[in-house]
Amino acid sequence: MGTKRNPGSFDCYAALGDDEPYFLVRAHDKDAPLLVKLWALMRESAVEAGIKPRSDLAQVNEAKQCAYEMERWRRTHDGDDRQMLLSVEELNSRAAE
Predict the structure, then answer these.
(1) What is the C-alpha separation between 41 and 10, in angstroms, rounded?
(2) In the chain, domain spans
(3) Which of 3, 43, 69, 76 has a 20 to 30 Å separation from 28 between CA atoms?
(4) What is the DSSP letter of 78?
(5) Distance from first CA to last CA of the chain, Å, rounded?
């Protein structure tokens, strides 16, 4: 898992094109763990459907670990363990509608 001081195996910054847009989600954002979990769920589903290669599961696992670390960081740094507005399950349910 990457941090500012220690970029992880899947750090995208070095691979960005000079004019390629990107979006960064920090642990400080209370919605960050949910967003990372949602990305991991979507990528895992794409692997299971054969759309993405099985090798992507390493990145999925790192994303899940990152979400866990984000939650842990929020508890120790912000003291803010508020629930997200929607859970992954609720997002899945809405997406299926």
Answers:
(1) 17
(2) 26-96
(3) 43
(4) I
(5) 34
